[in-house]
Specification:
single chain, 431 residues, alpha/beta, TIM Barrel, two-stranded antiparallel ribbon, 45% helix, 10% strand, globular, xylose metabolism, magnesium, magnesium ion binding, Xylose isomerase
Length: 431
Amino acid sequence: MSDFFGDIAPVSYNPDAEGLAYRHYNPDEVVAGKRMEDHLRFAVAYWHSFAWPGGDPFGGQTFDRPWWGDDMAAARLKAEIAFEMFEILGVPYFCWHDADIRPEGDSFAASKRNFDEIIDLFAEKLDSSKVKLLWGTANLFSHRRFMSGAATNPDPDVFAWSAATVKNCLDATHRLGGQNYVLWGGREGYETLLNTDLGQELDHMGRFLNMVVDYKHKIGFQGQILIEPKPQEPTKHQYDYDVATVYGFLQKYGLEKEVKLNIEQGHAILAGHSFEHELAMARELGVLGSIDMNRNDYQSGWDTDQFPNNVPEVALAYYEILKAGGFDKGGTNFDSKLRRQSLDPSDLIEAHVGAMDICARGLKAAAQMLEDDALEAPRRARYAGWETPEAQAMLTSDLETIAARVEAGEVNPAPRSGQQEKLENIVSRYV
């Protein structure tokens, strides 16, 4: 054991506690017929919690961590401390990128050796721990080789390097019993059409993803393959902009039955949507897989990746997830950063505890709204007119027949209130 977290004890559910405790997250509490832990499936993000140094676009490192270093000793120490934090929080899952867990070598083979050594260590840790792997992924965006994308890069050598990297990461995810594998296309897009063959890049991206799916089946990986929609950051025109864009891409390349989505709250906002919109869209399209639960600062125009603190927003998100039947292999990953002035080890624990409580409150509110039919009853009433024989007949009719009814005076629309404010008040009663 390290002494990084000092005397911080494992956090437990105690709504009356004065110190560090869960006030709302009770893993064993049954909500909508399932244990809360099994609904929420919390995961800690290895990158923001252990690999991010506290920088922002205008300043560098503010955190001082004992595992900072570009060698394997530092990587092993990072892993030790990460698993200590998982145990303190009692989370069931964690997530990683390859570059989070190993130092970059001077060749592909050297990086792979470093990666494999840490995967061996993870395998040992998982054997003696309750924590599991929610998903793995490859970092195909930070290194300068990916400045023009990975699968969409104009250089075929980068495409090849990316394919080899994903193969290794998928192999490792499979070995560790990961529930999902995520493709995060951080630089799959372009800055200007002056130097871009958009059609060729999309075809290459489609071919790349088909190869990933083929390899998944070849090795017998039973987890989900996920794409994470990501708008405008860092690339101006992202090919994976939002749920609808990604679904169109999947359809074009015959992947809509093979790939689902990992949807992030912060990315939804950057795309000009609400989180619940993106979740509802994915649910209706049958591609809702997993989520990154964070938030943006609404006064900033970039992805600030803050821990969630807004119960109404979180409740509406879990409402859509529950309507979809809940998570299967997905879960709630905290792709969230401390603020760069939050320097202490205890801040990492406090941030996750608070976020888990917020999610628990949101889940319980969402489940109660569904049980009470609080939103679904007025929704059904609004669309009740479509249950009449005349309305149903229109859906199998033609323009001329419908127009004849209108011209004969059989139809005279009378607008009705959408009652948005009333429904917002209903939500407020639950949160």
